[in-house]
Amino acid sequence: MEFLTAVLSSAPPSPPPALPGVRVLPPKSLNTSVYLDLNRFSRHTAWAHGFMHHYALWLGPVLLAVVFVAAYVVSWWRRAPRAAALLLLGGIGTVVALGLNQIVGHAAKELRPYAAHPNVLVLVAKANDYSFPSDHSIVAGGLTVSVLVALAGGAWKGRRPAGDALREGAAAPGILKALAAANVVLGVFLCFARVYVGAHYPGDVVAGYLLAGVVVLAAFLLRPLVFRAVGAIEATGAGSLLRRPGAVPADV
Q1: Residue 58, exposed/middle/buried by CB under 10 A (0-12, 13-18, 19+)?
Q2: What sign for the dihedral angle of Cα 109, 124, 122, 53?
Q3: Residue 244 has what DSSP assignment?
Q4: N or C: which end of the chain has fewer CB within 10 A?
Q5: Taking CA 95 as the corner, what is the angle to CA 242 and CA 213, rounded to the nearest 5 degrees?
């Protein structure tokens, strides 16, 4: 998998073995024109090549993961077990989307853009896999949507300090909203970076982002079951995985 191997690769670009497939998926003219325009822009911004190389390979996914974990820690610390459980569910959905991406990629069989345009500038090692969808954008879409869904009001119902009655309408804390906004920016920029370094067509990153979003949102259809499970887990020792230990969850 491209995402799992990219962080281990620091070799200079080299042509991969021939791979059977299609040169570019629809919309062909838009994919090609935007890709080539951005590649020309890349040639004129050599000062950014080092940063973009690292961001497109490993820095972007790492930053997204850090923000995702920070959102989980905020939910755990603020004693919002439902939000923490939704984030864990979103992480699982992202992994599932990465697996589905391999199936979709082998079905679409779109070649990397540098196979069709051998003279373009490529700032990362050339991969011997298919281009559509981008698994980096799968990570971006999955983690971003996971944090956004964790903002849902139903996940932030707290208990009153004096009893166990659920307090309706509790809002997510501002820090979680800031983390969600940061993940959106980091995720969109990662998609841009994958095209900037020459590794993908624009359609590849858009498709990956949307595919992950759909899979994670589908996983969140299980939210009622997850919330019921949280109620049972809280009464056990495993409850400390979902919220900071304490007799009663604090108001948020």
Answers
A1: middle
A2: positive
A3: -
A4: N
A5: 90
Dist CA 153 CA 226 (whole Å): 15
What 28-32 contacts at long range (C-beta under 8 Å, 24+ apart), as own/partner pairs, is 30/202, 30/203, 31/201, 31/202, 31/203, 32/201
Tens of pLDDT, residue by residue over 180-235, are 999 999 999 999 999 999 999 999 999 999 999 999 999 888 888 887 887 777 76
> Measured between alpha carbons, how far is residue 224 from residues 105, 146, 231 in Å?
32, 16, 11
Kindly list the structural domains of the chain, giving each domain's residue range(s) and its CATH number in brackets, ordered by start. Answer: 24-241 (1.20.144)
Six token digits for residue 231: 């109620």
Concatenated DSSP letters for 144-201? HHHHHHTT-GGGG-EE-TTS-PEETTPPPPHHHHHHHHHHHHHHHHHHHHHHHTTS--
CA 177 – CA 120 distance, rounded (Å): 39
Mean pLDDT computed over 160-174:
51
Whether the pLDDT of residue 247 is over 80: the answer is no
Given a cut of 70, whether residue 13 has pLDDT beyond it is: no
Whether the bond into 17 is cis, omega within 30 of 0:
no
Tokens 């919002």 label which residue? 80
Q: What are the tens digits of pLDDT across the range 2-11?
A: 554 554 454 4
CA–CA dist 93, 217 (Å, integer): 8
Comparison of pLDDT for 120 and 235, the residue scoring more = 120
Q: Which residue has the tokens 């011997």?
A: 128
- Give 75-138 as a DSSP string: HHHTT-HHHHHHHHHHHHHHHHHHHHHHHHHHHH-BPPHHHH-TTS---SPPPSS--SS-HHHH
